[in-house]
Amino acid sequence: MSAETAGGAVAASLPAAPARPRAGARTRRLPLFALSVIGAFVLCALLANVLSPADPEEQSLRQRFTPPVWEERGTWKHVLGTDRLGRDLLSRIIWGSRVSLTAGVLTVLLASAFGAGVGLVAGYHGGRVDAALMRITDATMSFPVILLALILAVTIGPSFVNVVVAIAVVLWARYARVIRGQVLTLMELDFITQARIAGASAGRIILRHLLPNTFNTLMVLVTLQVGYVIIVEASLSFLGAGIPPPTPAWGSMISEGRDFITSAWWVSFFPGLAILLVVLAFNLLGDWLRDTLDPKLRQL
Amino acid sequence: MARFVFARLVQSLVALVILSVVVFVLARATGDPLHLILPMSASEEDYANARRYLGLDRPYVEQYVSFVGKALTGDFGTSLRARRPVGELIAQRLPNSLRLAAFAMTVSLLLAFPLGVLAAVWKDTGVDRTAQVIAVLGQSLPTFWVAIVLIEVVAGRLQWLPAGGIGGFTSYILPGFTLGWFVVAGMMRLLRSGMLEVLDSEYVKLARVKGVVESRVVWVHALKNALIPVVTFAGIYFSILVTTAIVVETVFAWPGLGRLAYEAISSRDFPVIQAVVLTTAAIVAVVNLSVDCVYAFIDPRIRYVR
């Protein structure tokens, strides 16, 4: 359920977002920069095969380390230059956006679906179920994400699926904590008692009454974490435990250019810039969503 | 209070046990470790002997208990790559990591406090906006990229600081700064929002009405309460710091635990990874535990909420 409903909730909740009188005019303005950057990268990811000027994996050793077009030896054929194997950087960055965005969104959806589920169940049942689930949540939360991904990469081998699973396995705990807190307050309210008296089952109360009321919070968390996941995924690829070559991933592109930073700075620089832009956009959008939808969340 | 500390202690131990089981299972799930140790020409008999010698023929539960028992005494086996006891490698690298982490944490605190408080006091001014930009960038910049760019510009082109390795004080500046930025960002934002809320409260107004000097109102009365959320998140920041350190140490050729982990991955050195993961998790657990105790101490409400 979560993929579609969560996606739909963004679209549905944006225009209807209540204007908070205290939040001030600055927060209510639509974050145009963030939306357009995200829009541009989503477009790149969807239409990578149409938009990219060259094949991202095509090598041409004679044209290796061609600088970007505005430098002395640059050509319009390779606007952002080429890497160590003569592959077109712009095309690789465009294809890389597909990898990064898919990893980011998929991981967060997986983590939020599972985490929200745990949070709803824990908050609804309370007592021992709650205590047990929260102990596991706390244990997970204190575990450094990259370490787990590293073990998985070494034992099972690095792959896209492993990266997504490894990050999601740690990330869900944050959702469980926050959603459970919300459910606990919701459970005190009259409409839940009334639903109970009306004979609604546990499943119905959780799905029809509790879940919709946590959507705002979920949206804020999801948006704020997409950026974080993209950075973690890039770090893993950078360390060689992420998405294996030759698939163009921004993290491994930076890592490949590292040894040539003095002679060919562009190889590492542009993928990093791409990460910065996307993550910045998601963080700004998340901040904005939080200020408009759920000011009480503050730092999450 | 004692009950709270005890409950948290048990919880940390449970977390570590779960983790050690995960590590143990993953180590066994990925094929026979003997394939890595024995030569290609080994016969069936060699395998059987080695299995008996290493205790791999015993039941899993027994193996797990002996694995944990050894791990507790610092015996993590022998590194496949360095051919040295893993415990020795860890003991050699850990102090370097702790030193770097302590430096980065100090830098972060020194930057985050004044910036966070002043951004709240001078809300919507140039100071506030600069602080916000620093924070947003800190949370959006990939650490390893910042590290590479800093090495190229500050160490390479300008030749101001060493590019990597551990040495005198100057060698700490670049990695420490890179490592601390993300933490600065988060802490500053927490402090700012905490201060904004507290500065608006009744007791701060009362202090002002009573004629307390403004600097005392801000730095003593308000800051005390604005600190509570920062302490709550301190544990999470620490685990972020540990995670980031793997990347930072790798780029700056810092001979710490993080770089050891990276080297172990590239050479599939499983005993080392296992040891690094468990050591790090234990450190994180201890820090989290202490943070929670401090938190319960400064904010008595938390002891009863659970």
Q: How are the SSEs placed, and which strands pair?
A:
The complex is a heterodimer of chains A (300) and B (306).
Chain A: H1 2-16, H2 25-28, H3 32-46, H4 48-51, H5 89-125, H6 127-141, H7 145-156, H8 160-187, H9 190-197, H10 202-213, H11 215-239, H12 250-257, H13 266-293
Chain B: H1 2-29, H2 34-37, H3 44-54, H4 60-72, H5 86-121, H6 126-140, H7 143-157, H8 170-199, H9 202-209, H10 214-251, H11 257-266, H12 270-298, H13 301-305
Structural commentary:
The complex is a heterodimer of chains A (300) and B (306). Chain A is an all-alpha fold and 300 residues long. Chain A is elongated and about 75 Å long. Chain A has helices spanning 2-16, 25-28, 32-46, 48-51, 89-125, 127-141, 145-156, 160-187, 190-197, 202-213, 215-239, 250-257, 266-293. The longest helix of chain A has 37 residues, at 89-125. Residues 1-27 of chain A have low confidence and may be disordered. With 306 residues, chain B is an all-alpha fold. Helix content of chain B is 79%, strand content 0%. Chain B has helices at 2-29, 34-37, 44-54, 60-72, 86-121, 126-140, 143-157, 170-199, 202-209, 214-251, 257-266, 270-298, 301-305. The radius of gyration of chain B is 24 Å and the shape is flat. Chain B starts with a helix and ends with a helix. The interface between A and B is large, with 49 and 58 residues.
